[in-house]
Design a protein that fits this description.
single chain, ten-stranded mixed beta sheet, globular, Alpha-Beta Plaits, about 25% strand
Length: about 280
């Protein structure tokens, strides 16, 4: 679909969001508000506040604290690493401010740094938590095969000189759908606590009109670096270095049997977080 291409997304035609906004609360001293955010990951040192470097969370909290005239802490649906982009990140915060949602949204758009665009803002239930109440997420990853140099494209996709086998990659993703042990794609040395099994409801690769290939993954959850490691292994399948069955083998073993490259962050986009709608298949 033309409305789902990378260039249209980069121009601001974002995916639908699934945040359960409510009518504005009245007669309460504290409100819980949620935001839908788009941002360029290449301009920030990730989502989470760090001792050094600008972060999306840090910018959001500084802007909201200024608008609300009191300190504001922001919770997100998930942390994105430096270089990873978002079209549909979801965040929530509490405030005593009486600014209405429309005024606050206008204010944020005026004072936030370049690279962050608050798409929507509104009231949510007092117990709404963007991470713990999320039913799942969709991520998009963009590859550009057979390109001589990706010098100007690296912040937005993964340019590759290789000629990749699309059929083998599509087969690998089709075999992977269903229950996946995400520990198989976690980075070496990552601390993984709790269950690692997730449902991968959507896994496909489709050529786009601008020569890029989009890998789309929807699931009930992803561990840190899982999508990038999975895409790195998928590229190995496209190069003929792994069989299409290799990704499924790793999932069933619960470990990275065939270590490979981690896909660079610039090609990864958090597309959508689900709270009410079923995950796509």
């Amino acid at each position: 679909m033309a409305s789902d291409t990378l260039w249209v997304r980069l121009a601001g035609e974002f995916p639908a969001h699934d945040v359960p906004f409510l009518e504005p609360a009245t007669g309460t001293s504290t409100r819980r508000l949620a935001l839908v955010l788009a941002y360029r990951g290449d301009l920030f040192n990730g989502w989470q506040v760090q001792p050094r470097g600008d972060t999306v969370q840090g910018a959001m909290e500084a802007a909201l604290s200024r608008l609300c005239d009191s300190p504001v802490r922001v919770q997100a649906a998930g942390r994105t690493d430096a270089g990873v982009h978002a079209w549909g990140q979801v965040a929530a915060f509490d405030t005593h401010s009486r600014l209405d949602a429309a005024e606050m949204l206008r204010g944020l758009r005026a004072i936030l740094p370049t690279g962050i665009w608050p798409r929507a803002l509104g009231s949510v239930a007092p117990d709404f938590h963007p991470r713990y109440q999320a039913r799942g997420k969709t991520y998009d990853y963009f590859l550009l095969p057979q390109v001589e140099t990706g010098l100007f494209l690296e912040p937005y996709c993964w340019p590759l000189q290789d000629s990749l086998d699309h059929g083998a990659m599509a087969k690998a993703l089709a075999l992977l759908k269903g229950e996946v042990d995400m520990a198989a794609f976690a980075s070496q040395g990552s601390e993984v606590g709790g269950p690692t099994l997730r449902q991968l409801t959507q896994a496909g690769i489709s050529p786009q009109a601008d020569r890029r290939w989009r890998v789309r993954l929807s699931g009930t959850g992803f561990l840190r670096h899982c999508v990038r490691n999975l895409v790195g292994s998928l590229v190995q399948v496209g190069r003929g270095q792994l069989t299409p069955e290799a990704l499924k083998e790793m999932s069933e073993a619960g470990e990275r049997l065939y270590p490979g490259p981690k896909a660079p962050p610039g090609g990864l986009y958090l597309n959508r977080v689900y709270y009410q709608s079923p995950l796509p298949e």
